[in-house]
Design goal:
- By secondary structure, the chain is an alpha/beta fold.
- It folds into two domains: about 1-140, Rossmann fold; about 145-320, Rossmann fold.
- The protein is built from nine helices and 18 strands.
- The protein has helices at about 1-10, 45-55, 80-90, 105-115, 165-175, 195-200, 215-225, 260-275, 295-300; strands at about 20-25, 40, 60, 65-75, 90-100, 125, 130-135, 145-150, 155, 180-185, 205-210, 230-235, 245-250, 255, 260, 275-285, 300-310, 310-320.
- The strands form four sheets. A seven-stranded mixed sheet has the order 3-2-1-4-5-7-6, sandwiched between helices.
- It is elongated and about 65 Å long.
Length: about 325
């Protein structure tokens, strides 16, 4: 709700410099930035990035800087929020503004920052807080980016399954056949765990890693170094390829922000069907409670449950239905 709090901050004494670039870090695709003059939007999530581009905003997945002012929209994940604050402090000369919802930890972040640095009084409105401060190097130790974990893979704050291998993906890897071959896509590839295992099959000629999170894709480029890998920063539900594929593998997301959204996984299923050859196959894993069966029946001729456990179901899906 930055559009609600930012005008109140100007009334309360927030003064932005007359010149110098303004950056807004990671705003939601529907955020109201109308009180700012021509800000640079930094948005690494491809669907939101494309929304800002469509509005005519200068948008990039990473900071370019330096900036006179940085306005940081705090994400829910604590480690990601800290890394974002450290990056903004480093790139900014005059003012750093932080905005976030209480449900995403805005109160605790304000407390942590005030333990190190002086801030303005917070603007509290619409279940969130906004406050500002001068840039400082006091938060340099919060900096974090792609790094090698003790498990032997590269990951970063804000990337799905950043702390370890996702158990559903591990289950899918164990179920994949040894005779996978041809051209394959990994939709929602994350940091590349599924793709790395697909590429252990000699008969695979290409694997397309399709991932909307720019940082996750950077991690995947560290983790998957096989020359058969192709990397795409893209919304998997919109991504297309000229020549149909032999197979798709995926562990599709099912959350939009905090809320569960089965429709997201259903859109992934439809996308997979559109990418496959008539003889193509989809291999996927999903939380057992998710209602995907009707969508699978609508888009494919055959679905077989390969097993799983109380939490997850493993599905082999064959023969996409062609639509007029």
């Amino acid at each position: 709700m930055i559009g609600t709090r930012l005008p109140l901050a100007f009334e309360a004494g927030l003064i932005l410099p007359d010149d110098g670039p303004i950056a807004v870090w990671h705003p939601a695709g529907d955020a109201d930035l109308s009180t700012l003059h021509d800000p640079h939007v930094i948005q690494p999530f491809r669907p939101a990035h494309d929304l800002w581009c469509a509005r005519g905003r200068l948008t990039s997945p990473e900071p370019e800087g330096p900036y006179s002012v940085s306005i940081v929209c705090l994400p829910r994940a604590k480690a990601e929020a800290r890394a974002l604050i450290a990056a903004a402090m480093e790139k900014t000369s005059d003012i750093v503004v932080l905005d976030g919802q209480k449900t995403d930890g805005a109160d605790s972040m304000l407390k942590a920052i005030r333990a190190r640095h002086e801030t303005s009084a917070p603007i509290s409105k619409a279940h969130g807080k906004l406050f500002w401060m001068e840039p400082t190097d006091a938060f340099a130790d919060w900096s974090a980016g792609p790094a090698l974990t003790p498990g032997g893979f590269w990951t970063a704050p804000g990337v799905f399954s950043a702390d370890g291998i996702d158990p559903a993906s591990a289950m899918l890897v164990d179920a994949l056949p040894s005779k996978l071959k041809g051209r394959i896509a990994d939709l929602g590839a994350g940091w590349g765990y599924l793709s790395a295992h697909v590429l252990t099959r000699d008969a695979v000629t290409e694997v397309h890693l399709v991932e909307a999170n720019h940082m996750a894709l950077q991690c995947a480029e560290h983790n998957v170094t096989d020359q058969r890998a192709r990397f795409h920063w893209a919304d998997a539900t919109q991504w297309t390829i000229f020549e149909p594929l032999d197979a798709v593998v995926m562990n599709p997301p099912f959350h939009t922000e905090r809320a569960g959204d089965p429709g997201l996984g259903q859109t992934f299923i439809a996308a997979a069907a559109s990418l496959l050859k008539p003889s193509g196959q989809l291999w996927m894993v999903a939380n057992r409670h998710l209602p995907y069966e009707a969508t699978l029946a609508s888009h494919f001729a055959k679905t077989v449950e390969l097993g799983g456990d109380a939490r997850f179901k493993l599905l082999q899906v064959e023969r996409p239905k062609r639509r007029s």
